[in-house]
């Protein structure tokens, strides 16, 4: 019989997983798994459990917020062999779940986590740590891990909103600003930035406006957005307009897509998937292509495959259009020569 390790945060999202634990375990058992369930006891406990025992299992499923997902990713990547995974989102924000269409209903999410619809996704590597969807710095990026768990359970997303409001103000923005040099291979630039994300996601903090429209989650590249500090009201208005339209090309916003990004900066605090990523003065961030094998809804698997095929299709269409244009140009040139010959004969 196949074995499944189920690691869950019993306190995440008002403890919803506790209310449905028997149903979730029943779903896994009916899917043909012998299940070992483990409730985490503290932060980092999930990583340790997965690292020490994960290699003994055929699948590892976690339930919790994006922090629990972060622990799973770092635990799984330390194993000596690849292990299939699954995720049941029970947290407050759940950006990863939103990107991959994972349902909020824990029983339905459990059915997906135990399914055969497994997709290989990219991960980001931040120094020697991994992130599932985003590494971020700047204004309000510490709110996710500094907001009290009891407050999140009671007030849900409003607990974050209150703490974000506390970060607003000229002095706060100035304090958050960091001088930084960004080397993304073909693109190198420097500046002072109040906020930045390096991501592999379609949503960050529930917002789509921080992410490029053409994200592919398994192409071996990360999307990075760096926002300089606006100093005048009209610059703030223009910044909001560009972000709302997700137009990163006609403003001071700096956007790159790359497989490796090197940062040199004054001491800067980062968050990784909403967890404390520590303070750094230099860091290398890379895209690890298709290293996370995770069970997803059929529509999410189809969406990533369609994105890849659309990209290939667009390239083929461009090639066809180029060939057609060359053919039409040759035909027009021949027609013009025939016309000139005809006129010459008539003149003779």
Labels describing this entry:
348 residues, 2 domains, four-stranded parallel beta sheet, alpha+beta, Tumour Suppressor Smad4
DSSP strand (E) fraction? 25-35%
CATH fold descriptor of the largest domain: Tumour Suppressor Smad4
| N/C terminus separation | 93 Å
Note the total helix count.
12
Structural class: alpha+beta
| Count of extended strands | 13
Which blocks of ≥5 consecutive residues have pLDDT under 50?
151-167
What overall geometry do the principal axes of the alpha carbons give? globular
Domains, number: 2
Largest sheet: number of strands, sense, barrel closure: 9 strands, antiparallel
Q: Estimate the mean pLDDT confidence.
A: 81
Which class of the largest domain in CATH terms?
A: Mainly Beta
Q: Radius of gyration, Cα only, in angstroms? A: 25 Å
**CATH architectural group of the largest domain:** Sandwich
Estimate percent helicity.
25-40%
Order of helices and strands: EHHEHEHEHHEEEHHHHEEEHEEEH
